[in-house]
Design brief:
globular; alpha/beta; 374 residues; seven-stranded mixed beta sheet; binds pyridoxal-5'-phosphate
Length: 374
């Protein structure tokens, strides 16, 4: 028996890049212009982007025009090196990254298999692509395999988060990788909530599973304390995004100040492992304390969801905790399905064990005060 290697979605993308090049339409990052050059293609009409009053925060144009800055390249190369991937491309936000990447990696007639609990930005990106979207039950790898096998679409993608931020759970990424390889599908993993915190040296859950995603999305707005986001993977991927991701091409480049802040956040996360250890230790203490109070927190890791069911129950509990100085978001529909409202505690490196103790005392108080009311 011999296997014919099936072409993957990114092989197709490589072909399309070749065609763009033949037609003279391929855009590439330009070399920095000679010093002393005069720019006649920025949108910095009043010349304020470089003034100290704006914090020199503007890049003045899309990166394809004149908005490309050394700060972008530095952060992209630091991210790619850290993740052991050939390249990365910055977007202004994780929302823009997913909408832009998915929007140009599939098109009409293609298939996107998407976890039922994927983030809104993934849902919107999949819709924009016009591909057929099959939504599979949460974490159901068998359903992913069945959806791929029953489709004859040319390009097929499996899209998932690595750490679901509302449920604090994780798909079997090694299994999804094997299923994708078997079917010639691409694996697209959004690690927005994992990077910096989970996996070996905080490098995420693909790294923990020992797999490579074809497309890996991360944001600088969560663990790295800045904003902006990136898509990382092979050179074919980032070259395609440079040419076709509309939220990248048709938008002002990420602020160089934000890129610098992102790099500083990444460096801190790399150099201070105590930060993620503290966040995870706080989460573990919080989970344990909730359990002692008869509450079973779902999932694992730094997000600790307390399932309450109704929107009313979760807002009432959140209000009671606020009275005790503990701020926790009540997560209600449409962020989660009807009947799945919850309180979502997130443990961070800023929490001390005293803070966790205070939160648990507040939970005890809230439980008794809510039960007195009802
Ligand atoms: C899985 C996932 N992807 C992307 C985003 C969007 O990231 P950003 O806040 O950088 O737009 C979020 C934000 O909550 C998210 O949870």
């Amino acid at each position: 028996v011999f296997h014919v290697k099936r072409s993957t979605p990114l092989d197709e993308v490589a072909g399309e890049l070749g065609r763009l090049e033949q037609q003279g339409l391929l855009r590439r990052p330009a070399e920095p212009p000679p010093s002393g050059s005069v720019t006649f293609c920025s949108n910095d009409y009043l010349g304020l982007a470089d003034r100290s009053c704006t914090g020199k925060a503007g890049s003045g144009a899309s990166r394809l025009v004149s908005g490309d800055r050394p700060e972008h390249r530095e952060l992209e190369s630091a991210l790619a090196t850290w993740l052991d991937l050939p390249s990365a491309l910055l977007f202004t936000s994780g929302y823009a990254a997913n909408v832009g990447a998915l929007g140009c990696l599939a098109s009409e007639g293609d298939l996107i298999v998407s976890d039922a609990l994927n983030h809104a930005s993934i849902i919107d990106g999949a819709r924009l692509s016009r591909a057929t979207v099959v939504i599979v039950p949460h974490l159901d790898a068998d359903a992913v395999a069945a959806a791929l096998r029953s489709s004859t679409a040319r390009r097929r993608w499996v899209v998932t988060e690595s750490y679901f931020s509302m449920d604090a759970d994780t798909p079997d990424l090694a299994r999804l990788r094997a299923i994708c390889d078997d079917c010639g599908a691409g694996l697209y993993v959004d690690e927005a909530h994992a990077l910096g915190v989970l996996g070996p040296a905080g490098r995420g859950l693909c790294a923990a599973a020992g797999i490579g995603a074809d497309v890996l999305v991360g944001t600088m707005g969560k663990a790295f304390g800045a904003s902006g986001a990136f898509v990382a993977g092979g050179v074919v991927l980032t070259r395609w995004l440079w040419n076709r991701a509309r939220s990248f091409v048709f938008s002002t480049g990420v602020s160089p100040v934000v890129a610098r802040a992102g790099l500083a956040g990444l460096r801190a996360a790399q150099e201070e492992p105590a930060l993620r250890e503290r966040a995870l230790a706080s989460a573990a203490a919080l989970r344990e304390g909730l359990m002692e109070r008869g509450i079973s927190a779902a999932g694992w890791g730094h997000v600790v969801p307390w399932m309450l069911g109704t929107a009313e129950a979760s807002t009432r509990m959140a209000a009671a905790l606020t009275k005790r100085g503990i701020l926790v978001a009540a997560i209600r529909p449409p962020s989660v399905a009807v009947g799945h409202a919850r309180l979502r505690f997130t443990a961070t490196a800023r929490h001390s064990m005293d803070d966790v103790g205070r939160a648990l005392d507040a939970v005890s108080w809230a439980l008794s005060s809510v039960s007195r009311e009802t």
